[in-house]
Amino acid sequence: MPKLQHIDPANKRKPGFVEFLPIPVNQYQKTVKDEKGNFSNEEFKAIYHDMVLIREFETMINLIKTVGAYNGTSYNHPGPAHLSIGQESAAVGMAWTLTVDDFIFGSHRSHGEILAKGMSAIHQSDDKYLLDVMESFFEGAVVNVVKKDFKGTTKDLARRFLVYGTLAEIFARETGFNRGLGGSMHAFFTPFGVYPNNAIVGGSGDIAVGAALYKKVNRQKGLVVANIGDASMACGPVWEGITFAAMDQFKKLWQGDMKGGLPVIINIMNNQYGMGGQTCGETMGYDVAARIGAGVNPEQMHAERVDGYNPLAVIDAYKRKRKIIEAKNGPVLLDVLTYRYSGHSPSDASSYRSKEEVEAWEKHDCIGSYGKQLMDAGEATQSDLDGIWMDVKALVYDMFLKSIDDEVSPRMRNAQIIGDMMFSNGSVDSLSTATPDVLLPLADNSRVKKIAAKERFAFDADGKPFSKMKQFQLRDGIFEAMMDRFYKDASLVAYGEENRDWGGAFAVYGGMTEALPYHRLFNSPISEASIVGTAIGYAMCGGRVVPEIMYCDFLGRCGDEVFNQMPKWQAMSGNVLKMPITLRVSVGSKYGAQHSQDWTSLVAQIPGIKVCFPVTPYDAKGLMNSALQGTDPVIYFESQRIYEIGEQFHKGGVPEGYYEIPFGEPDIKKEGKDITFLTVGHTLYPALQAAKELEEKYGMSAEVIDARSMVPFNYEQVVESVKKTGKIILASDACTRGSFLNDMAANISTLCFDYLDAPVCVLGSRNWITPAFELEDSFFPQVSWFLDMINERIQPLAGYISGQNFTDAEFIRRSKLGV
Amino acid sequence: MALIVILPKQGQSVESCIITEIKKKKGDSVQKGDVLFTYETDKATFEEESPADGVVLECFYNEGDEVPVLLNMMIIGQPGEDYAALLGEEGKEQEVRGKEQEVSKAVQANQPINQLTNQLINQSTNQHTFISPRAKNLATKEAVDINLLKGSGPTGRIIEKDILSALENRPKMTSLAKQIAVQEGVQPQRTGTGLAGTAKSTDLLPVQNTVYGVDYEDKKISNMRKLIAKAMHTSLQNSAQLTHHLGADARRMMELRKKVKKAMESGKLSTNITINDMVCFAVIKALKKFPNVNSHFLNDTMRLFNKVHLALAVDTERGLMVPVVRNADDLSIIGLANQFKEIANGCRKGGIAPELLAAEAGTFTVSNLGNYGVEMFTPVINLPQTAILGVNTIIPRPKDLGDGVYAFVPYIGLSLTYDHRALDGGEATRFLKQIAIEIETLEIEI
Description:
Chain A is of the alpha/beta class. Chain A starts with 8 loop residues before the first helix and ends with a helix. The relative contact order of chain A is 0.09. Classes of the chains: A alpha/beta, B alpha+beta.
């Protein structure tokens, strides 16, 4: 919605037609003979070798899964194996021209792509680079296994390294590329430009776009390929990723060297089946998947279908598409036609296709037909090809034996180490060595000047509150922390809906537009999966990013990204990857059932995310600083009820300088001795009011503790408090059933059992839809509900009559009804 | 017809009283006006008299029990009379509860300890007493028998508060007794053999060789003591006190005292007017001239009284009490003397109206230690009053009688403590001097 782009009604209302360009289908029909001179003999044979390597590798896994042995050696692999036998030419063609600076992302069926891209990197790299990579990776733990008793060349050693590292990873060995924590569907090796493969169909569709964003914004070499299946084109996040990648602003609004499209190729590995569903003819309607490009942008994503059974066709396509990417005309869509003979997985009985169909494709087999071309062109003899097969078979068997040897390829001896890998717990000022791109000195910023005139503590010397406008507000705390980092870390970008000119829906980003160029702060499409998904790709590549979800209720729209991707990759990579994302999520109110839900519990339950919910300006700034200094994914909750609240607790007000508040440390906002209130989120304020009423009317003094963080969480202060008071109410705006407070309550009961004078009580919202604002006081915990609960469940208050029914019978009645 | 004797409510804020002595037990015959039992609030002790002639048909509580006010205490009637109808439903419950307690106490008194423990276990299983973990830990630590408690938590759960209040009200235990009680899981007998009913270890176990026992005992302080402690500590913490000392020529008073004695001997006077009465009379006169001293200091306001409500410190067995004579400036010296005697006796015997004991009731206090030979002291102000006069003993001091003649003259010492927040030194000194003048020029009618 930039003002400089005028939407002219006269122009927009004109009649006309949307015209499409023809989308090429299998236009490349050359053979080895036609390409003679464009490839050396070694290259022609290397292409053959790489395909054979993949074929043998996957055949080995297939045999282990189906007959429990390979070359007469038994082995049981209980884990998954999604094979791509038949698709080798598509993988090798895709990877052939890519350099180590080009990143590929894959799917659950990406063993072939790992080997293809790995071999491509080995072909292209010099010995020194390869040795450095191998020796430094996990301090040589992987290479040491394959180096022993090996006398060959460095490139041969690298090939052993690649095959062994991948296989050991599939077999969950500590010497695997991801310490055995990724496994078959998630194995990857970043030094060769192989980024995470993803077990969620289409999972890479938005993550890869984020990686391309990282390359662009941080001026990094290379392009990014998203290898996703034909069936994933039905997935929302894939479509959202594509939409994000094709945003007009890259070419129309981004300035200077940032102007231009994202360097990303959406590469559909089109094997024509999604598990057992036939995409063309049954489960999709696109006929040719490349057609999708026509619906995305005027360039039609430069889409075309390529015959993926001919490795030379794919190589040709990649050579041409690279030029488009380098001319900043991305994104690109490639529909690489292929076929797998193997089933979706070992349990696949292929009941959905005929034997004849499989046999027909086998007659076209990419390796067989390419080998024939080599011989026809005089580039190789049958014995050359047989030699390649013999060599590969010997290699694969050798690596197989090493990877199943518990002595040299042990499983993680102490699985507790997984706990240490859930968070990287880094503390890094800047993730970039570049000078941050900004538009004006921080001191000249209009918002910074405005804040300078504000009162950083809510009350004057006499305890009288300053006017709301005069107070340094919670939103100012977030702003200060983020601006500080924008000027410190060139890699930091922030985006989401209405983040730029509007200043964020809740005015947190007011004043940022004038300070930051488009490529550091921009509006995203209204598609949360792409907002979070691209952030994951961005962070994975090494950049710091603050995506924003306008309402907590929209978390469902990026469910996979938040539940499956963001939290998992640090540990699944064996700590190779970091995930410095601070996802801002705003909890609404007043807007009814789909805009007023506190879903903190949903994310607190997922291992691998830090979760905080600051509700004072001091805490907001300090926790945002910690989030932005760290290297872990953080979900940073905010409450729309209190963006304008001033600092009422921290003596001396919110410091102007930099400070951090550690995650997991609750804060006592008010001391007391008779009962403890532990709150998460905005409920701190009603709890404080309840404490006041309790003290004035009933002589009970309440200690009020603000949890501030949910994950991690240090119980020590709370335990100390409960030891003193013997009573505790936990309260938040989340619906009571399944609330994270119940988890905390159980822990407090365990830790404080002998000190309790009453059951640990949880006070949450009703298990209903959030009603209209006017009815919210019967839904969200109110001041009086604290007293009701004390009176009913903890200690009867003299002369008090409860408003809410917190009796056992009512509790059971509601539970029976599920409300 | 039988009559119910309830436990009267003495004073607005009194919720319950402790039964100090039951003078007429169940079955005893009584006459109207006989003292049935005595009871105490946190401020005073009272006697309850029988409303009629007859027999004590029922007594619901025992000595040492804390009984909520207005509950039935005794029933007086004719022997064999059926009083059930009198009680109604509620009363029956009360009666049953009383009986249960009696039974369990009898058991405790007569049975060996191990049997007693079993009994207690049985009781707790039968009664389904629910108790919070915190309360349970405290009860175990302090050797409180939870079976005797009624929980105030939700659904009657015993919570920490209940244990604390039980500790407050149960017979005091020596620390050794407590320790043994915890170890053996037994309770003391209802009334101990130690000082003031303190349960000693010997109340739980056979006699031990005291030579090797502890040579101290921890005694819980009484409510009265707590109140005094609090009032005194608060006074010293929350005000700016200092004391001026000055002597007054006591010859006039001693002369008057002789007259009083003579008048009493001759029967002309029935009231004994003491030196203290005279000093107080003089103080009242001085106060009329210094209204600022006859006041309360209330932080942001001074409350100046038109009348003098004079408080007098009285030493009793239960501790220091400071009853008030209201409108003391309306009284003659004889009236004042009579009033003093009445309230002092009320304090010593119990039965004084609680509202006369409140610090707020008085406007100025006199504390007389002269009888004990004290020559000088610094009395502590009874807040919110602004000053207190300490009266010392009379001692002869040399005085210049003029013409170079010196003589020993009896002087009475006066020690005025005042709150410097309310009064300045000049005014306080002038007031003190005025008292001396009043004493030296005292006129009384006998």
